[in-house]
Specification:
six-stranded parallel beta sheet; elongated; 12 strands; alpha/beta; 40% helix
């Protein structure tokens, strides 16, 4: 039972509920895990109010809150979670992001390959915590990838339209896919207007492509679990929530061959395509429909990764981390 003396944790997230992106989903889920034992609040910035620990998502975007908290409470735990662009870009060149690494009591990365991006001196205060998602039963039957099947097969990409997610590769693949069953479904808001215009033009010129814009998280997961495949074409990822949600829904993934995706799916995964290679992506989509053995391989490999993404595993790791830091 929580009391007045229960430790207080503030989670700093550069994105709140309206953004409906990966950082917000992490902040929301972690707050739910922690609330059984701690008083928890989520904020975009730190207002200086008393708290016993801070968890800050993204080394650069949360840099001001990290610096302010470290200055005010140097003796209190400060956890910095490297969530994506900070890990694979900002900490190489941005002074604020680099300062966040030094100020942190503890660093958290979301998949094991991320450790390669950190100097050896930071490894001793870095922990890997895989994110999780509730298991949903896939709607597509295991035999859906057959050339004789007549129904449409949804190939779903989930991610706001911005350069880091490289949605243009998915759109270009719509022009190249040969299978008449393939329906390329794109979910996400146009954060960059030029990419929004490209999505509109692709939808007008290709009947197999539909851009649905931003959808609520629950509605997106329902569409995902009815998909034949999920595509992630990102240029950089810290540990993509959408991969976890696909895997825990029994939906195989086609992923750009980048470190962050390899850390989630494993080095031997058969569903990688070269970054930006829309022709290779289209070929893999067609192969997944025409070749049941290939599709079954993707299913098996994703199923083998699913235990990493169990909510009880993520919750236990997070609670152990905070308990060790606070008590």
């Amino acid at each position: 039972m929580l009391t007045r003396n229960t430790p207080q944790i503030v989670i700093i997230s550069p994105a709140l509920a309206k953004a409906n992106n990966g950082n917000w989903q992490t902040a929301r889920r972690w707050s739910q895990f922690l609330r059984q034992y701690y008083q928890v609040r989520i904020a975009a910035t730190w207002d200086g109010n008393d708290c016993d620990a801070m968890i800050a998502l993204h080394a650069r975007r949360s840099a001001d809150a990290i610096a302010a908290f470290a200055a005010a409470h140097p003796e209190f735990p400060l956890v910095v979670v490297l969530t994506g662009t900070d890990l694979y870009r900002d900490i190489q060149t941005d002074p604020d992001a680099q300062r966040s690494l030094q100020l942190a009591t503890q660093l958290v990365v979301l998949q094991a390959s991320a450790l390669q991006e950190l100097t050896a001196g930071l490894h001793t205060k870095t922990q890997v915590i895989h994110q999780s998602a509730r298991t949903l039963k896939a709607v597509m039957p295991a035999t859906s990838a057959t050339s004789t099947s007549r129904h449409h097969l949804n190939i779903t990409m989930i991610g706001h339209l911005r350069d880091e997610k490289d949605p243009a590769t998915f759109m270009r693949a719509a022009h190249l896919v040969q299978s008449p069953q393939a329906r390329l479904i794109h979910i996400g808001a146009a954060l960059e207007p030029a990419l929004g215009r490209m999505a509109e033009q692709t939808e007008q010129s290709e009947t197999c492509y539909r851009w649905l814009g931003s959808l609520p998280h629950a509605a997106t997961r329902q569409r995902l679990k009815r998909s034949h495949l999920m595509v992630i074409s990102s240029k950089m990822e810290g540990g993509a929530n959408v991969i976890i949600e696909a895997v825990t829904s029994g939906v195989p993934v086609l992923a750009s061959d980048i470190s962050g995706n390899r850390g989630m799916l494993g080095d031997d995964y058969a569903g990688y395509f070269s970054l930006g290679d829309s022709q290779e992506l289209a070929r893999l989509i067609d192969q997944s429909i025409a070749d049941p053995a290939f599709y079954a391989l993707l299913q098996r490999q994703c199923a083998a990764r699913a235990p990493l993404f169990a909510p009880e595993r993520e919750k236990a790791a997070l609670l152990q981390l905070m308990d060790n830091l606070i008590h």
